[in-house]
Every structure is written in C-alpha cells, then in structure tokens.
Write a structure and sequence with these properties.
single chain, alpha/beta, Methionyl-tRNA Fmet Formyltransferase, Chain A, domain 2, 2 domains, seven-stranded mixed sheet, 28% strand
Length: 293
C-alpha cells in the first residue's frame, strides 16, 4: 500500500524513519515532549503535537489519511467510534512483543523478568489493548546478555520491520492458526510492571535475581533492595565466576554482602556470586557480611 496516505501517531522514531525511507506519504502527530517530537523539530519536519486524548482524536478525525499507524500512542483509542466517520480507514498498532504473548504496557520488562522471547508485532486495532488480529511479527529471542535499555531499542527497531511486513501484506491479518503461543504449552502473559516486581528478593535463586535486575535497569524504573533501613537502587548485574573467589565461598554466609567497592556490591547467592553494579544509596550502610534476608 505504497500509494496510501498515512497518519503516524505516537512517540517513537524508528517506524517514522522507515516510512520516509519507503517513500510513503505520511503526516505525523507526535506526543508532546517525546523522542519523536524532538527528532521532528531537530530535522525541521512539519508535525502536529498533541497533549491529550481529546486533542489526538480531533487530529485523527480531521485527517484525510487511509491508514492510522499507532507507534507508542499513550492512549487507548475508541477505534470503533473513530471509524464511524470514515469506514474505509485502517487502524494498526505496533506493539513491542511477539504477540499474542506479553500484551500490556510493559512487555519488555516482562520478557526479561520471565526470560521470554520478545520482539515486535503489527496488528489491526480494535477497542481493546493489543487484542486486534495480528498482521506481522518479528521475534527477538531471550538471551541473558540483554538488559532493558538495549531490548527497548531492539524492539523499537523491530517495530519498523513489522510495519514494513504488514504494509507489504496490505495489512491483511495472518491466519489465526499462525498466531499461537510458541511454545504452545507456555501460558500467555499480560504484563504491567509493579513496584513489587522491581524489588530484589534475595530468597530467589541467582538467575531469578539476575533477570529481575536486568528487567528493571532503566533510570525511570530501576530495581531496588532494602537493607539496614535504607533503599538501594541497582542498575546492572553480572555473575562472577572467578576461581579464587569460589575457593573462599565458605568464608561468606549465603545471601550476604561479600564486598562493597566503588558503586558495586558483591553478594553470595547459593553457590554463585552476583556483582550488583551502579548501586545508588548509602553504601557505608552495607558492611561486609551483612545478611540480605
């Protein structure tokens, strides 16, 4: 549908850039203060800003576009009502997960927390949240070297790929038999991040703690733990497998602080060590040997 007229609404840049590369006719409605708005302003590209759901709906109603592309739109739109004035108009959404898994507002955090594959999907919009028929999907397999900021960028790039695939299909949905849980026995997750999920539970095994910190490694939603009456945020983590340190394991209690240096805290978890990195808080309140349970 290269000849169609598009309206891109949202806050992300990769799909907008891909649409330009494809030579599509596209107007843009950008959320105020978003990465997309800053990029458009810097490149002196005309756009329409919006700061409320009502304002965005007015922009959509006035547009003469054929396809509305939602890419990071902060609102749930009443698509059925919007289509009443223009029945031919197609509404599609780009969601950063491999649908039908990880619907909801925080799929990337959920993918890392539970060790699940992620990616990007383009689907037809209805009045629900990430519930319309899927048109195209891109899978990004889980691997322990991923952390939230990197996976965000990869998924946002994959959204552009999913959009292009969907456009090449003229936005025709996939057969429902092609859009099933993979592996089929895996229960689907609708994920909304909570403060409880961000809290590091040192009763968990080292892999679960590792995934939790990696899942919440962004400035606006960091992992944290509480000890000695203080809260400590943790931005990153890695396993430490040094043989000398392993030989000293019996000198350190399980689930305790082994060493504090710079902005790092080394802890023993079972038979392994985790290095908590970019730790913020009063580190002097974490003496060596402090139990973390």
């Amino acid at each position: 549908m290269e000849s169609a007229r598009y309206l891109l609404i949202g806050n992300r840049t990769y799909t907008w850039r891909r649409m330009r590369e494809l030579g599509l006719t596209v107007e843009v409605a950008a959320a105020e203060g978003s990465y997309l708005e800053r990029a458009l302003s810097a490149e002196e590209v005309p756009y329409q800003p919006f700061r409320s759901k009502r304002q965005l709906m007015d922009l959509i109603t006035r547009s003469d576009c054929d396809v509305v592309v939602s890419n990071g739109c902060p609102y749930i739109l009443p698509v059925t009502r919007l289509q009443e004035t223009c029945a031919h108009r197609i509404f599609v959404n780009l969601h950063p997960s491999h649908l039908p898994d990880l619907k909801g507002p925080h799929p990337i955090n959920g993918a890392l927390l539970y060790g699940r594959d992620c990616g990007a999907s383009c689907h037809l919009m209805d009045d629900g949240v990430d519930t319309g028929p899927v048109i195209a999907r891109i899978r990004i397999s889980y691997s322990p070297d991923l952390e939230a900021p990197l996976l965000y960028q990869l998924c946002f790039r994959a959204e552009a790929d999913a959009f292009e695939l969907a456009m090449r299909r003229a936005f025709e949905p996939l057969d429902p038999d092609q859009v099933v849980p993979d592996p089929p026995y895996l229960p689907l997750v609708y994920y909304v991040a909570t403060e409880e999920d961000q809290c590091i539970d040192f009763r968990e095994d080292s892999e679960a703690i590792y995934r939790r910190i990696r899942a919440f490694s962004t400035p606006n939603r960091p992992a944290f733990f509480e000890a000695n009456g203080h809260r400590f945020t943790v931005r990153d983590v890695e396993w430490v497998e040094n043989s000398y340190l392993r030989s000293k394991r019996d000198q350190y209690a399980d689930r305790s602080v082994v060493l504090v240096y710079e902005d790092r805290v080394l802890v023993r978890i079972g038979d392994t060590y985790l290095k908590l990195k970019s730790v913020e808080g009063p580190l002097e309140a974490l003496p060596e040997g402090l139990p973390l349970l």
